[in-house]
Amino acid sequence: MREKLELRISEHLIKISANKIAGTRIKENVSRAARIFRNGKLGTAVARGVTDFPSLIKRAEENMDYGLRYEYELPANNTYFKDFAEGYENLSLKELNDICENVLNELTQKYPDYLFNGIAVTNLESKLLENDLNLSLYENHQMFYFVLFFKEKGGSNIMDGYIDYSSGSDIKLNQFLKHIEDLFSVYKSKQNLKSGVYPVILVDDGMQKMLLDFFMQSLDGKRYFEKTSMLSGKIGEQVFNKSLSIVDSNLMPEYGIVNPFDMEGMIRDENDLDVISCGVVKNVALDLATAARFKKKSTANGYRTYMENPKIEFSHINIKPNDKRLKEILGGNEAIIPVVASGGAYTDKGDFATPVQLAFLYKNGMISGRLPQIQISGNFFKMFNEDFLGCSSEKMIPYYPSNPFVIKMNIDTLN
To answer: Which domain holds residue 97?
Structure first.
């Protein structure tokens, strides 16, 4: 059985340095991979550029004896075709340049004491996966991404913080500029903070992933069934706060999350995979090999680049909103919003800590000022049990895919 994978990307990029356009790039990439499955053996060949599939199939045949094996049933008799970018033309470099110029002009006029660096990227991406068992899957989608790193002129830091924007549909830069305005309106209002336990609001997608990383490790099906996960054997048990429900979402095209099928050709019955429901462990993520090994069904979480064999990955893990707004969740208490954090991680026992280079104080329903550098810490099981306060029914940043959630954490001031 022969399988063909083709990935295409058309990318336009603008580089920004010290408040000016500093460079441009156009990239057109085609990546192809061929795999042959026969009698438990697997041959593979890959290429970038114009290499045709007959040549790749021939090379894959020659690689059949290199020891790769498979022991699972292959997907068959399924068709999927969806152009999520239908009617959309990738922005030209000039159009992208004009967007950047307009944003920079507005920012440098409003905030002359700052330097801005970053990139703006727009692209069209497509995936095509076919095999000889009547499988034919295709998707095409768009993505726009804009990130700006800022620093005060004359400051000693390489950067003081960053602000990003992304969209998989219409570009709404007014939302991005509003977010920047909200941040800079309080950036120079420095607030004091005593070390202690505070509600922490996780808003930014990167911050949320950092806190949810232990779920992704623990709910990896291979680790779970090999009993190397701290959640092994817990499916069906109430382990976490009853208000905590977590899903892996594979299709949110308005946010650029587009994985209607995985890279093995599997399609879910539902776009959201329930992994935690009302605190109960419901499912783990599985690719074909792991599912077959433990006599389970794939959850369509087998992902790979064109150069790799599939492995278990989550598409977009996120907490489902509760029915309370942020104000109700906090109950009038002050809270911390970490924005820039690096150097943090979980230990094997689930203890988490990270320094936070940029954080803000949230008070009386609004961001009131910038905090000194802090460290946030907590334990996985405590943070998502008695210390989990809820996930807001409303977004704070409209273009982020997930709603903010709140956890009580230990806060230590660093300076």
So the answer is: 2-187
